[in-house]
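Sanity check. The docking grid for zinc ion depends on where the pocket ends up, so I'm generating a full predicted complex first rather than guessing from homology. Inputs follow.
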Amino acid sequence: MTEDIIHQCPVCSGTEFSPFLICKDYTVSRESFQIQECKACGFLLTSPRPSLDTLGDYYKSNDYISHSDTQKGLINWAYHRVRKIALKNKLELVQKYTQTKGSLLDNGCGTGAFLSTCIQAGWQADGIEPDADARSIAEKVAQKNIFLSLNEVEGKKYDAITMWHVLEHVPDLNETIEKLKNLLTEKGVLIVAVPNPESDDALYFKEHWAAYDVPRHLWHFKKKDITGLFKKHGCSIKAICPMPFDAYYISLLSTRYKTGKTQYIKALWRGFISNNKAGKTNTSSLIYVIEKNP
Ligand SMILES: [Zn+2]
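Predicted complex below; grid placement will be based on this.
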């Protein structure tokens, strides 16, 4: 494996880091990776990490559920049931903050479920997906051409851009945010969902927390990191919204990573506790609604 070490914090440009946690890749490689903490601002990042030419190898697993459409097993069954409700909630959230059914870009559309939900609801929606297998499924599901990267939509404008659990996978964070900002209409909104390392389930499971998902998750965003990062690019946070379903699924995986056993009741209980403590702005994952400053 060739590795990249992060020498500069993408949030504050700090150059000193201290070890935070060592986490194992439970889904693909079984290798261990270090999460480092920026000494200046506290941002958590995976470093060293596989270099760009080998990172793709760490996505090759049937367990990597966001790219899989198999319905085997109770977890996957529950996941797909919940996903239906979650898709509807996502669409309602987008429509609440845009107040229009205009143009939408789903960046990192995976197998196209949200994209096709938007198209069916009357949006002019485009999708981007770098993974070839997921992209070909998305093209069938959404019945349209899916772009490979942000470079292919350069010059276009969107009323809404969504990134559902995508930003934590993006290697060139600041460049990507600048591109996203340029793709938004004046009143457009960027909707970003990411895992929340300050949630109760993250603090409880520590290195076994499934949403660290190293080395695929390169960054681990706290609320102040998202705020600071987007502020640098002339954007501000309009709203932070909860994602209550994630706590159950993440707790189920985390319990399995911690104990080696699948324990549904225990996981449901942990998920329930996490949501109970979270209020509206500290759930296992959070949705940020971001706008450009006038
Ligand atoms: Zn920093």
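Relevant for the grid: The CA atoms of residues 113 and 247 lie 21 Å apart.
Also worth noting: The pocket of zinc ion is lined by residues 9, 11-12, 14, 38, 40-41, 43 (CB under 6 Å).
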